[in-house]
Design a protein that fits this description.
Low-confidence stretches: none
Order of helices and strands: HHHEEEEEHEEEEEEE
Mean pLDDT: 96
Bound molecules: 3,4-dihydroxybenzoic acid, fe (iii) ion
Number of helices: 4
Structural class: alpha/beta
Number of strands: 12
Helix content: 25-40%
Length: about 260
């Protein structure tokens, strides 16, 4: 039964993709020669490790978030990107994410409240936080930065609150030396993402919630190469004793 429903959904989606592409070909009078250019381009993309994933993620991951945000009563979700790692170090309320002293990042505090869709605080939510180094790289996946740095696992308290200290991330340039870079360049776009902090919230009876925050007024917020920014996720800093504070609250949907 489940398999039949899955097949039906699969067939619907595949048929709609095929129909959409056929309409594009007809509207634009795409020639056989042009079709073969596209076929060769995709073939070449597939031969280069990770490039097909990068291309499809850059163009379509954010659209899955739009689809979910359109239906959800919870706060906005955003793309996960490729750099989440399971097993980040647990950090006590108000504690500090490990950062590299020599990278001299700007200290920030991230805090907020986690509630359900009726505004009731949720205790014991596991909140993974990860972000770039002060030079725009990611720990664990790029050389030289231990994977327990720039990542932490927090837990909300009885009032649904969390708080952590870390350093401010900076803009990040996705790999652009391959076909993804070529497509972006051809469209007159760059390969930069604005500075952002990733979050993944999980808890019993809750729909997994993956999102990001961006910083008001900063570079590339209006031109993210992954089109992952929505207004709700662009936040301003407040200042507390000279330290920048981001307040990111979460409204979590119940699992279906
Ligand atoms: C990519 C990297 C990120 O850190 C992110 O948030 C989104 C995409 C990437 O390299 O494709
Ligand atoms: Fe990222």
């Amino acid at each position: 039964m489940t398999q039949k429903i899955m097949d039906k959904r699969h067939n619907t989606i595949v048929n709609e993709i095929v129909d959409s592409i056929r309409q594009v070909i007809i509207r634009n009078k795409v020639t056989n020669t042009e079709l073969w250019l596209a076929i060769d381009f995709l073939n070449e993309t597939g031969r280069s490790e990770h490039e097909m994933a990068l291309l499809l993620q850059a163009f379509f991951e954010s659209t899955t978030c739009v689809a979910r945000n359109n239906e959800s009563r919870g706060s906005a979700v955003a793309i996960e990107g490729p750099y989440f790692l399971e097993g980040a170090p647990e950090i006590a309320h108000g504690g500090e994410i490990k950062t590299l002293a020599e990278e001299d990042g700007e200290p920030i505090i991230i805090r907020g409240k986690v509630t359900d869709v009726d505004g009731k605080p949720i205790e014991n939510v596991t909140l993974d936080v990860w972000h770039s180094t002060p030079v725009g790289t990611y720990s664990g996946v790029m050389p030289g930065i231990p994977e327990d740095h720039y990542r932490g696992k927090l837990t909300t308290d009885a009032d649904g609150l969390y708080e952590v200290r870390t350093t401010k991330p900076v803009p990040y340039q996705i790999p652009h030396d391959g076909n993804t870079g070529k497509i972006l360049e051809g469209l007159g776009r760059h390969a930069w993402r604005p500075a952002h902090i990733h979050f993944k919230a999980r808890g019993e009876g809750l729909l997994e919630h993956i999102t990001q925050v961006y910083f008001e007024g900063e570079e590339y917020v209006d031109s993210d190469c992954c089109t992952g920014v929505c207004d709700e996720l662009v936040l301003g800093f407040t200042n507390e004793n000279g330290v920048k504070v981001i307040t990111k609250n979460f409204v979590l949907d119940a699992a279906a």
